[in-house]
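Re: D-MYO-inositol-1,4,5-triphosphate structure - here you go.
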Amino acid sequence: WILTVLTCFQELEKAGLLNKTKIAEGGRKLRKNWCSSWVVLVGNSLVFYKDPKSQSPSSWKPGSSRPESSVDLRGAQLHWANELSSKKNVFKLRTVTGNEFLLQSETDSLIREWYNTIKNVIDRLDRE
Ligand code: I3P
């Protein structure tokens, strides 16, 4: 089981807080609703959790730590998209199913790291 645990840790590539909004669902445009999200890149998926800071301690339950949503990165497209927002440091992630997300951070280095890490996963999956 130690091997299993090690494998799990290897697959966890990155985690952190980003601003997120979904802008399309199945190709249909949605109204923006920016919120802070705890983003975890694990294996082939980007998983979104509610920002722990936005939850009061009294409302926290073990069950509430389940993901809000997750995105399969296989076949996904990633583009810088500063033209799609008044915010800086924005990129767009589009899934094969036509769901589109904008992700943003005020910190240049942080958003670049996220972009590069997600891009590497997408490129790796494209080569498989
Ligand atoms: C939206 C909100 C978003 C903004 C969006 C507005 O208004 O202000 O923050 O996106 O701009 O429409 P509302 O709250 O009334 O829905 P950015 O912060 O990314 O610019 P947009 O419509 O030009 O995308």
